[in-house]
Design brief:
Length: 535
Amino acid sequence: MAEQPLDSRKTETLTTRQGHPVSDNQSLRSVGERGPATLENYQFIEKITHFDRERIPERVVHARGTGAHGYFEAYGRIGDEPASKYTRAKVLTKAGVRTPVFIRFSTVIGAKDSPETARDPRGFAIKFKTEDGVWDLVGNNLKIFFIRDAIKFPDMIHAFKPDPVTNRQEPWRFYDFVMHHPESLHMVTWVKSPWGIPASYRQMEGSSVNTYKLVNDQGEAVLCKFSFQPKLGVRNLTSQEAAEIQAQDVGHATKDLYDAIERGDFPEWEMCVQVMSDDAHPELDFDPLDDTKRWPEDKFPLLPVGRVVLDKNPSNFFAEVEQSAFGTGVLVEGIDFSDDKMLQGRTLSYSDTQRYRVGPNYLQLPINAPLKPAHTNQRDGQMAFYVDDGQRNAHVNYEPSSMGGLSEAGRPAKEYHQWVEGHLGRYQTTRTADDYRQAGERYRTFDDREREDLIANLGADLRACPEHIAQRMVWHFWHCDEDYGRRVAEAAGVDLETAKALPPLPGKPAPGEKGQGPTYTSGKRETPEHRDAAE
């Protein structure tokens, strides 16, 4: 690729598919900086729904995967407290009850037959078939992600996928995207270390990544994150160890999981939650809804809620693994959405992808169907193979009706009502100090083996990048930690002083500085003074 100076490159204006110029491709429309996204996010909806349909028949992301059946057994407690203090979700409050689960593990970027030694986050998607319907918890092995706003997701995946010309994953594409998103530095530090290649699915963590809410019988809510800690402990691979395995077997993790279950060595994880009050937490340097940040475990400890055991392999891989379909919007009573902008976007995208990939009746498939028969007024569509049964009058496929159709369920004694108020607009978080701080802290917690592998991987990547990208990445890493930046510069053959002299990215706050916020923040009533200021 011929390199050109940044200021000499001529680019066309980004537009929608209808030709409308795009003035902000970084932020969903939301009610205030921290408020919920709105359904009229047309630019995002057009972008994400087209992205969801880019490939057929394999998944756009998480194409390479395997899975197994098992159960979740609740402790009935969250830490030392009764689980009912936080949630009315029966799956978490009923001690000793075993809920059937199916877990699908996966890599993210590679195609269906790509190697399982790839340096990549690992999907950890768990389907709970509870007495109150299906609950899907769709996450990764790492507790964070590359971006914090779902409107960026198609661009991120495009940059990480193979080049449309060379059909290869080119390092310059990855780092060209990352260098414009300091929020990604934390995830890059994890993925480019041995944590980017788990040794097996049985020896890796799982995490919801996104922030949810737990809601109790009194209609009170707390923010929460879910995680899964493997009973066997965590084990990862260096690049050299992964290369040695890949030379012999591109599906080593699938084989390891299948063989362990067949011999009765059932994998087990302890499921935990972190909780915090449902507010902005100004005492933190990051927004707790920002999924590029970890909640410090010394302040928000991992509280055990139950255990997950896998004890049965699929009897048909296609029917049970390939056709398994997950969605972040599939929740049960007592577990609710937060205003996490990645979660809000994923909730549309994931189920939309499944309707396209598997079909509008994918929920009729046994692997995806709830334990109890579903009773809806939805009908027909491609590949429908039964009509929801149990109705008193099959003629009535609408509600309400006086002719014996379906009726609404009773509502909770106290519903959860979130107060939402703010100015509709496009917002980026103003709390960006930890974009660099948490990445630096992670670098300093790595042992020598992890740090050496991280530096070697980054150095090799950046040597394959144009000079301006390599220099900017060194600038970023140096602001995370001076030793981090110095060692990456040496490994990449970049002059450290030249990199350090670069100015901050246009439109981005300098590391450690507060970002540029909106005129007002959510939670403020509009007054004449506010309107005057806006005008």
